[in-house]
Amino acid sequence: MNLLKISWSNIRFRPLNTLLSVVLLAFGVGIISLMLLINDQISEKFDRNIKDIDFVLAAKGSPLQSILANVYHVDAPTGNIKVSDAKRLIKNPMVEKAIPLAYGDNYEKFRIVGTNSDYPDHYGCEVESGKMFEKPFEATIGYEVARDAGLKVGSTFTSVHGFDNAAEGDPDAHHHDKPFTVVGIFKQSGCAIDHLILTPVESTWLVHEHGEHHEEDMEQPATDLPEHHEAETTQLADHAEDEHQHMDAEAHDPDEGREMTAYLLIKRNKGAFGMLSKQAENTTMQLANVAVENSRLMNNFGIGMSTITAIAIVITILSFISIFISLYNSMKDRKYELALLRTMGGTRMKLFALILSEGLLLVFMGYVIGLLLSRTGLLILSNTMKENFHYGFDKLGITFYELILLAITLVIGIVASLLPALRALKMDISKTLSNG
Amino acid sequence: MLHTSNIQFKYDNGPSFHFPDIHCGKGEHLLILGESGRGKTTLLHLLAGLLRPSSGEVKILGQTTSGMDDASLDRFRGKNIGIVFQTAYFVESLKVLDNLALPAYLTGEKVNREKAIQALSRLNLESKINVMPANLSTGEQQRVSIARAIMNAPLVILADEPTSALDDKNADQVISMLEEQAALNGSALIIVTHDKRLKDRFSKQVSI
Questions:
Q1: CB contacts < 8 Å between A and B, how many?
Q2: Judgement on whether residues A262 and A302 belong to the same structural domain of the protein
Q3: Which residue of A has its CA nearest to B44?
Q4: Does one domain contain both A134 and A26?
Q5: Does A325 lie in the same domain as A248?
Q6: Looking at chain A, which residue has its C-alpha nearest residue B52?
Q7: Residue A271's pLDDT is what?
Q8: Together in a domain, A389 and A245
Q9: Cross-chain Cβ contact B92/A337 below 8 Å
Q10: In chain A, how many domains are there?
Q11: Is residue B158 included in any domain, yes or no?
Q12: Which of B45, B48, B93 comes nearest A12 by C-beta?
């Protein structure tokens, strides 16, 4: 026999009151904690992907889209830019580093990104097994790609045109014949490279060597299937030969006709980048400011999250009222038994503690169920997001904010049970028992 | 064991009472008889320390209970006084056996389940150990409350109209049980009642 056993019996004895209070609090706490978890993990993921990248040089379009596509790898790119045009801007001394990115294909919904070793180096991604890609059609793949697509060092795969919308077995999918070979797998880094397939830029050029339909393909990958299909059947040897002739013919400018999706730019110092932006204005390119677009994104996000959080706070307040009413009524029903406890040697303080512990037990149950709800919500959300964007939430531990939330719920429990407990403290036992 | 001297009590805006002095020695059984409105329950509450007299004093085991502070009085009562009320009250959410564990828990004693089971079987309630109090009959409830009153082996047992809600057979049984249980510890037993059926059973009586 102890205080908790008595409180617990009392709580269980009134299951409907208890259920209402606990469910309300669990939803309040659950939603707030879910918002905290999402906010925490999204900003952490975003920050990790931004990592000192100042600008994205990409085709004109929505600057936000070019950041989503090229930094976070969740949206389709705005189009392609000419390498020769881009290089004119990049050679500016204010640009410390320009990392090339060329898209076009995917393998089992994992994006294939043509780039150079600057890209993984920038994020500090190390190769865990195998080596870094060097030659065309060599691929070094992210941790999740290896895990989910079942690729190992030495595996080969053929790419599918498009980003996320074509998958194996899709009859409309436009397959390329030239296989890629996995030469290495990156260590898990927590940034976008985890779900990317990296290959030299040349691979993407070689895959799409044929025709000038590049950009249209990107938007509508399957419209000109027959023509492409024919083109793609070109033998590997021809391919190389074509390439060779192509290079010979335009030896004066190897970049002529080459296209890139974007460049990630890191500036040298606090230089005036305005000039560079102006320079881009007269071209088909634009410079998107990562910090500005990201804060715009987080703001939009924030409005949605604040609304949901506000609803959760209202639910929590309702749960507070429910706990208060439930304890107050149960106190009224139980005044004889509280008086009885006094006659059997229970002091006022013991009664006070009993009622307080009932309130605390209720909120603690609500809190624990709330955290379980938020984890369940996070996992469901994470799976949906992984399917669509390869972004998941995987941290399920208790965060610092949730400890604060625990403190707040305990305070709610104490405040809600204080008045009923004070009534018990002041109760006139003789009068209560005589009225029976 | 228990005696009062010159106790008076006045309710705020209510009647005032002046009670005759009461003496009850170790192992003695005392019947206090009185009609309704004579302050029987008031007197019992004064003896139990649930009320404090306006004047006069209550002495139990040589200690003046009317002079103790609230918390000490609660503890003293829990350890030394067993009370059986007219209506049997229970912690409704606890089973019979757990209700019997309360007196020991509340006074900080070690809970002795064996002792509780023994007390219940002496009162023919062994089959009710795991029953919720609300599912007992009135007679059974009164018997359980007697078992509970003696759990801490109190030296004073106070009973307030313990038989008024019971039929003859049950009333007889309850009184016999009270006497038996009081005899076990040599407790002083004081019964306050207007129930005339009890008049012939007690040699020592006080009328108020």
A1: 84
A2: no
A3: A430
A4: no
A5: no
A6: A430
A7: 60
A8: no
A9: yes
A10: 2
A11: yes
A12: B93
Q: What is the pLDDT of residues A147-168, one digit of tens each?
A: 988 899 999 998 888 765 444 4
A178 and A126 share one domain: yes
Question: Are B45 and A339 an interchain contact pair (Cβ–Cβ within 8 Å)?
Answer: no
Q: Alpha-carbon distance A220 to A228, whole Å?
A: 13
Which of A337, A343, A436 faces B91 most closely, judged by CB atoms?
Answer: A337
**Which residue range(s) make up the domain with A268?**
55-272
Of B50, B92, B103, the CB nearest to A13: B92
Please indicate whether, in this complex, the C-beta atoms of A344 and B102 are within 8 angstroms of each other: yes
Q: How far is B142 from chain A (nearest CA, A)?
A: 14
Select from A272, A290, A317 the last residue of a domain: A272
Domain match, A154 and A31 both? no
Strands A110-115 and A196-200: parallel
pLDDT digits (tens, 9 = 90+) for A380-422: 988 888 777 777 777 788 888 899 999 999 999 999 899 888 8
User: Is A380 domain-assigned?
Assistant: yes
The residue whose two tokens read 């190769």 is A127
Residue A278 lies in a domain: no
How close, in Å, is residue B88 to chain A by CA atoms?
10
One-letter amino acid identity for A69? A
Asked whether residue A204 is assigned to any structural domain, the reply reads yes
- Inter-chain residue contact A344 with B148, CB threshold 8 Å: yes
Considering only CB atoms, which chain B residues are within 8 Å of A13?
92-93
User: What is the count of structural domains for chain B?
Assistant: 1
By Cβ distance, the residue of A334, A347, A433 closest to B85 is: A433
CATH number at residue B124: 3.40.50.300
pLDDT at A254: 63
Q: Find the domain containing B182 and state its range.
A: 28-35+68-207
Q: Which of B102, B152, B156, B157 to mutate to test the interface with A (most CBs of A within 10 A)?
A: B102
**Is residue A277 one of the residues assigned to a domain?**
no
This model of the complex carries an ipTM of 0.90
Residue B10, token pair as written in the block: 């006045």
| B49 within domain boundaries | no
Looking at A272, A290, A325, which one is the last position of a domain? A272
- Do A139 and A206 have their domain in common? yes
Residues of A in contact with B45 (CB under 8 A): 430, 433-434
